[in-house]
Design brief:
This protein has about 220 residues and is of the alpha+beta class. The chain has 2 domains: about 70 residues; about 140 residues, Jelly Rolls (Sandwich). The protein contains 8 helices and 8 strands. The termini are far apart.
Length: about 220
């Protein structure tokens, strides 16, 4: 056995180890080590084996790219004060990274007293959640109730496509986030896993509003 032959054996041992680990990051690191161990063997042959060198380099580059992505995905998620408050109020069931990607699609705004987020006869153009300030819901002749921070505004209208039968406006200055429908649809088309999580959140929110309405009667 030639000394270079040990490189092939060591490379295959590394591949066997990579197949036995469960963590994708370690699997890719062992695959990179196996490919890099093989390259010197191909280079020291009487005739350099360029095709295996080329393909080992390609596989190494792909794995290094995926390793970089994994490290980026595993970075600690840092939320702003508004994002942290929103997460605690309504999105605790989501992973922080998934929540952050969703929050980046929304638009943060300061609501002033009397500002409407829903208007009678108009379809909902966005889904909103206040993190401070209360939103009062009214019909032309009566007050229906108030939505506390953390409750969704406009979900039922979005799901049904119906124009609003109520006005919803801030009774005092507040802070809220709104997701324009088109931007939200594009985002959810790319993230079907989050679509299911948001539908479950919307269902819980509607159930909570129904219980609140029954309790106020």
């Amino acid at each position: 056995m030639q000394p270079a032959d040990y490189l092939v054996h060591f490379s295959n041992i590394l591949l066997l180890v990579s197949y036995s680990v469960r963590d994708m990051l370690w699997l890719r690191w062992f695959a990179v080590a196996a490919a890099l161990t093989n390259i010197p063997y191909f280079l020291v042959q009487g005739t350099v084996l360029w095709p295996p060198v080329l393909w080992a380099s390609v596989f190494t580059a792909i794995n290094l790219y995926q390793i970089a992505r994994i490290y980026l995905e595993r970075r600690p998620v840092v939320l702003s004060a508004d994002e942290q408050k929103l997460y605690d109020l309504a999105f605790g069931s989501l992973r922080p990274r998934d929540f952050l990607s969703l929050a980046l699609v929304g638009e943060w705004k300061d609501g002033v007293a009397g500002e409407k987020v829903l208007a009678i006869g108009e379809p909902a153009e966005r889904i909103c959640i206040a993190i401070s300030g209360e939103v009062e819901v009214r019909t032309p002749g009566a007050r229906v109730g108030r939505l506390a921070p953390g409750q969704l505004v406009g979900t039922a209208l979005v799901l049904t496509g119906s124009p609003s039968a109520v006005d919803a406006s801030f009774v005092a200055p507040g802070r809220y986030i709104g997701w324009p429908l088109q931007a939200l649809r594009v985002f959810l088309d790319k993230r079907p896993d989050l679509r299911l999580a948001l539908l479950q959140l919307a269902s819980r929110d509607l159930a909570g509003k129904l219980e609140q309405a029954l309790a106020e009667r």
